[in-house]
Amino acid sequence: MAGQGQRLTVVPTVTMLAVMKARLVGATRGHALLKKKSDALTVQFRAILKNIVSTKEAMGDIMKNSSFALTEAKYVAGENIKHVVLESVQTASVKVRSRQDNVAGVKLPKFEYFSEGDTKSNDLTGLARGGQQVQKCRVAYVKAIEVLVELASLQTSFLTLDEAIKTTNRRVNALENVVKPRIENTITYIKGELDELEREDFFRLKKIQGYKKREIERQRASAIGFAEDQIAEKLSLSKGISMASAQNMLAAGAKDEDIIF
Hints:
The chain contains 4 helices and 2 strands; from the N terminus they run H-H-E-E-H-H. The model is unreliable at 118-122 and 257-261 (pLDDT under 50). It is mostly helical. InterPro entries: V_ATPase_D (IPR002699).
């Protein structure tokens, strides 16, 4: 993996270890949330794909019926029916508006058709000739417009979801294969360095204790030697002998335990 064997450049301290652990917790939670988001988007993506397939299948029949209806209207009312229809239309009877749906934080555009205005004047179109076929053609093309608007909405949502899923999956993979392994390797490195520092401190304390023990023994031996010299001096003065003789007597007395001070 990309993040295996790599770590962040940090100072191995206890504070940094706590920071890295907090970052690991945040990365784990973020990975879980992004994974759930990706699953939700994938479910919606598949549902939209299913609707697109069914809508396209229905669109074939609807467009075929509308084309036949237009042919029948032209046959009955004549080829000049187009100008008559254009003159009778004042405003559009079918319009499209857009809105947004929120799916797991992703805004999907939705298109809706709606009718407004008075369309009764259009009922007189082709009254002299072929009026019924013109109305059938109008109804057929209104259905075609409705299907096209629905298909446009599904296609737009499909493309938006596809891009959102790719982005989310890239983030999930980055967290799983790069960010989290690096943080885990950094935590392992910091723990190893802290353990090594702890071992160094323990060794240093043992050396200091050994030095202090040797220093205490040296001071004790020096104090004992000083006390023996004082006693030998007193003994030499009291008995009128030399220091060497006094020290020899002290040594012999210490062995035989015959001299009491």
